[in-house]
Amino acid sequence: MTHPTHGGKRDGAGRPAGSGRIDTSEPLTQTRIPVADKEAVIDFVIQRQARRLARTPSPAELARRYPGTVMLPAADAPRIGVPLFGSGVRAGFPSPADDYVDVVLDLNSYMVDDAPSTFMVRANGDSMTGAHIFNNDVLVVDKGRSPSSGDIVVASVEGEFTVKRLQMDRGRPVLRAENPAYPDIVPTYDQEMVIWGVVTGSLRKF
């Protein structure tokens, strides 16, 4: 009896796992669709994650939901003018020219670009020390800014809040720590991930 030398399953055949445009750790299924609709379906799946980025409540609503965690800039905060010297700070002897004040800096307008879309949260932990974000820092977050790959964001994954750097990998969002001791957070397609906003600044008192 002879055995066929072709057909059937071949070891190593097919595309390597995770090398396609759509990658997921969940089980996959085959579905037949018209060839003309292939790109539209792929784009729909990729954009499904992106649409989650905008589904966040307003800063005022976040502050009501999470008192003590989310803080808002004062709506009627007065301008606070602080002298800003024109030259940089040196470790050596001061120069008489350093007595010249270049501008008066208002700290409120410097830290907050758009007050209605801005809120603040306090960092907890050391997962972002590589980005100079340390435990107990107050982070300034702009909800009105569209998040892009490479931005530091405040996100919620299945109700757990975190501050991480957003990276897009083949259309999927990845939340990456700035500390090698922490693994990436890669939400699966059935997990709820919401981007609260983009971190635009950090406040720390010594």
UniProtKB/TrEMBL annotation:
<feature type="region of interest" description="Disordered">
    <location>
        <begin position="1"/>
        <end position="29"/>
    </location>
</feature>
<feature type="domain" description="Peptidase S24/S26A/S26B/S26C">
    <location>
        <begin position="83"/>
        <end position="199"/>
    </location>
</feature>
<keyword id="KW-0742">SOS response</keyword>
<keyword id="KW-0234">DNA repair</keyword>
<keyword id="KW-0378">Hydrolase</keyword>
<dbReference type="GO" id="GO:0006281">
    <property type="term" value="P:DNA repair"/>
</dbReference>
<dbReference type="InterPro" id="IPR036286">
    <property type="entry name" value="LexA/Signal_pep-like_sf"/>
</dbReference>
<dbReference type="InterPro" id="IPR006197">
    <property type="entry name" value="Peptidase_S24_LexA"/>
</dbReference>
<keyword id="KW-0227">DNA damage</keyword>
<protein>
    <submittedName>
        <fullName>DNA polymerase V</fullName>
    </submittedName>
</protein>
<dbReference type="InterPro" id="IPR039418">
    <property type="entry name" value="LexA-like"/>
</dbReference>
<dbReference type="GO" id="GO:0016787">
    <property type="term" value="F:hydrolase activity"/>
</dbReference>
<dbReference type="Pfam" id="PF00717">
    <property type="entry name" value="Peptidase_S24"/>
</dbReference>
<dbReference type="GO" id="GO:0006355">
    <property type="term" value="P:regulation of DNA-templated transcription"/>
</dbReference>
<keyword id="KW-0068">Autocatalytic cleavage</keyword>
<dbReference type="GO" id="GO:0009432">
    <property type="term" value="P:SOS response"/>
</dbReference>
<comment type="similarity">
    <text>Belongs to the peptidase S24 family.</text>
</comment>
<dbReference type="InterPro" id="IPR050077">
    <property type="entry name" value="LexA_repressor"/>
</dbReference>
<dbReference type="InterPro" id="IPR015927">
    <property type="entry name" value="Peptidase_S24_S26A/B/C"/>
</dbReference>
<dbReference type="GO" id="GO:0003677">
    <property type="term" value="F:DNA binding"/>
</dbReference>
